[in-house]
Amino acid sequence: MDRRLRVRGITTLVVAGITTSGVVLSTVTDAADRDQRLHVLSDCVTDPDPRTHRTLMTGALPRPADIVDTAGLRSLLYENGPLPPGAGESVAPFGGK
Fold first, then answer.
1. DSSP at 96
2. Is the dihedral of CA 84, 94, 52, 46 positive or negative?
3. How far is Cα 4 from Cα 10, in angstroms, rounded to an integer?
């Protein structure tokens, strides 16, 4: 996956997922080790254990990633002006080809 991202010049990832203590945490850890810029969508992640979720969202994940909600992400995307036509259309889902 890292090679595919680098070939496409992708240096920023937006992470969302169902298990904060599983896939979200491992994705953020791996991507941070590979020097990706990271945003975790606070309103698009959850965990079966609310206490674990809260601990990760306030303690572990803010170190390597910016924690932002979807409205905040929209602001970040438009921070430098509107996106050019077609921007974001080539984004493949996780595991996509």
1. -
2. positive
3. 9
What token pair was written down for 23? 């896939």
What distance in Å separates the CA atoms of residue 41 and residue 96, rounded to the nearest whole number?
A: 20
pTM confidence score:
0.79
Contacts of 91 (CB under 8 A, 6+ apart): none
For residues 71-95, b (16+ Cβ closer than 10 Å) or e, as one string?
Answer: eebeeeeeeeeeeeeeeeeeeeeee
CA distances from 21 to 10, 24, 61 (A): 25, 7, 10
Residue 50's identity, in one-letter code, is: P
pLDDT in tens, 26-67: 999 999 999 999 999 999 999 999 999 999 999 999 999 999
Beta bridge partners of 13: 38
- Give the end-to-end CA distance of the chain in Å, rounded to a whole number: 10
